[in-house]
Design brief:
Strand order of the largest sheet: 14-15-17-18-19-20-21-22
Distance between the termini: 137 Å
Strand content: 15-25%
Number of domains: 3
Oligomer: single chain
CATH architecture of the largest domain: Alpha-Beta Barrel
CATH class of the largest domain: Alpha Beta
Number of strands: 22
Largest sheet: 8 strands, mixed, barrel
């Protein structure tokens, strides 16, 4: 039995005290569990309470963080200092009620954000948060939004901002040049050594570009292997010419990529403000046009924008549009030039030559539209059309007559050749041995891995392969070792002067000997005179073609010629 008398008032007070104790424990537990550091000071600036998170953030000794400690004692033990940005913020007047935000940089580099709420009686409560990781993440996001991830250069968005800023200054009399460039021979590096090697090369290019410019210039990567430089405050055009030459020189030296010595290069197109444009889009467009001109003129060139470039590009677009229509409206036509065996004089094959029957311009020769079709990718559907029609036309001709079709590096790069050839053969019923694909040395050099893989696949199917324009490319003899060609076509530049030049005859004699030793046939191209024909026959060439023997003609004329043979 409880000997104590039961007093209802005392029981009520006990129950109220117990409830208050429970609430206090709950508040104390909540204070310790919140993710922020928290402290409270009385009106005379003495510490009332501080949770564990507060003590951990500031790493203060226990004897400092104790109830009753003054604000000055705690501040004297606090490492670091308030940041300049925090001190410059507008804050409530001292002694007034309100909330202020402070930012503290610790000696170990961490950043602490503090929100202090002060009451009218002078007491306050403060929340403390370690925002180091949050600010680093924000800085990283901001950096990625403004920089190319691979090279660390300014990205397209920043470049436009810089151009806007520079153009605004340009209106006050400052000078501005935009230099546009892309890399020569970059794709073979990717294809031969892999994309990781290509990325390494781009990083090295970026580093060399940084070394070419001043601190006030901006180097940017537009994507792929395209870069830009914004040059300010230099006399123009002399300043941009010197910078362009430095860039060309810097990128002409060999690179070490994963232990491989790599040679690339670049050309530079330059647009000047305000004469070539007073807004970023116009300036970039004109810089690209100047770059296109520089690359057309050859490698390692500088070209400045000229108004006539816009006229040429408009004309180019018109030709491109008409060429697309030509495919749809069946305006393309194939002519065939016969190839004659020099031993018995019979026709052993024909070469398919493309023409464009333009409704206004009449017959357009390939030199006027094939380069454009390669640049725009239209060569792929055009090449498909040529294969289909050439195989179909050749089917009724005698079984010993082959039909040769030229294929470009673009068709190989887009993986179109194998599929298009097999489809054309299946659709026409032409035996694979009667189709001969002609590929130039330039295509072999530009993308050897892709080209050789496709050629081996087609050779296994029975398709014949010829190396066209031999002697006009970049690495002639090396190509003969890379693939067992069925035929070697000697470029017309050798044939033209052969009767009068002993050195050319010696070269061609050596080529024919090599071809015979490797089991290849040889065809002399561009035979136009009896002297040329006699020369190639005497040297042992297997076959010949040219206007002397037979000009390009329609399929019906070839059929009649074969029937009368």
């Amino acid at each position: 039995m409880d000997p104590r008398p039961h007093d209802p008032l005392i029981d009520a007070l006990r129950a109220e005290n117990e409830a208050m104790r429970s609430e206090l424990e709950l508040l104390r537990d909540a204070l310790e569990r919140i993710p922020h550091g928290m402290c409270a000071f009385s009106g005379d600036d003495r510490l009332v309470l501080a949770n564990a998170r507060y003590r951990k953030i500031w790493n203060l000794p226990p004897d400092v963080v104790r109830p009753g400690a003054t604000f000055r004692q705690i501040m004297d033990a606090t490492p670091g200092s308030e940041t300049d940005a925090s001190r410059s913020r507008p804050q409530p007047a001292p002694g007034t009620e309100g909330t202020r935000s402070r930012e503290w940089q610790l000696d170990d580099g961490r950043l602490i954000e503090i929100v202090v709420s002060r009451r009218a009686d002078g007491s306050c409560v403060a929340l403390h948060e370690d925002v180091t990781e949050q600010r680093e993440a924000q800085a990283r996001i901001s950096y990625l939004a403004r920089h190319d991830l691979l090279t660390g250069l300014a990205n397209r968005a920043v470049l436009r901002e810089e151009l806007e800023r520079a153009l605004a200054g340009n209106r006050r009399g400052e000078t501005l040049a935009l230099l546009c460039l892309d890399l020569d021979r970059f794709k073979p590096v990717n294809d031969t050594y892999g994309h990781a090697a290509g990325d390494d090369l781009l990083r090295q290019v970026a580093e060399r570009l940084r070394g070419c410019v001043r601190e006030i210039d901006v180097v940017g990567r537009m994507g792929g292997d395209e870069f830009t430089v914004v040059q300010r405050g230099a006399a123009q055009p002399e300043g941009s010419t010197r910078l362009g030459q430095r860039i060309i020189e810097a990128l002409s030296h060999p690179f070490d990529v994963d232990g491989h010595v790599v040679h690339i290069g670049t050309s530079v197109g330059i647009a000047l403000a305000p004469v070539d444009g007073d807004d970023p889009e116009t300036l970039l467009h004109h810089g690209d046009l100047a770059l296109y001109r520089a690359k057309s003129d050859g490698r390692a060139r500088i070209s400045y924008f000229e108004p006539a470039m816009n006229e040429r590009i408009d004309a180019r677009r018109g030709v491109e549009s008409s060429l697309r229509e030509a495919i749809e409206l069946d305006q393309l036509q194939l002519l065939y030039q016969p190839r004659f065996d020099l031993r018995d004089g019979r026709i052993v094959g024909v070469e398919a030559l493309l023409r464009w029957r333009h409704p206004q311009r009449g017959m357009v020769v390939p030199d006027e539209f094939i380069p454009l079709s390669k640049e725009t990718g239209l060569i792929v559907p055009i090449g498909r059309w040529v294969l289909e029609h050439a195989c179909r036309d050749a089917l009724p001709w005698p079984p010993h007559v082959t039909v040769a079709v030229n294929v470009s590096a673009v068709q190989f790069a887009q993986s179109a050749v194998v599929i298009d050839v097999l489809h054309a053969l299946a659709d026409s019923g032409l035996p694979a041995r009667r189709l001969e694909l002609e590929i130039t040395e330039t295509a072999m050099v530009r993308d050897p891995t892709t080209v050789l893989t496709a050629l081996h696949t087609l050779r296994e199917k029975g398709v014949r392969i010829a190396l066209d324009d031999f002697g006009s490319g970049e690495s002639s003899l090396s190509q003969l070792r890379s693939f067992p060609f069925d035929q070697l076509k000697i470029d017309r530049s050798y044939v033209h002067d052969m009767p009068d030049r002993a050195d050319l005859r010696a070269i061609v004699r050596g080529v024919i000997t090599i071809a015979e030793g490797m089991g290849m046939q040889t065809t002399a191209e561009g035979v136009e005179t009896e002297a040329q024909l006699s020369a190639v026959r005497d040297l042992g060439c297997t076959a010949a073609q040219g206007f002397l023997l037979g000009p390009p003609m329609a399929a019906e004329a070839i059929a009649a010629l074969l029937a009368g043979a």
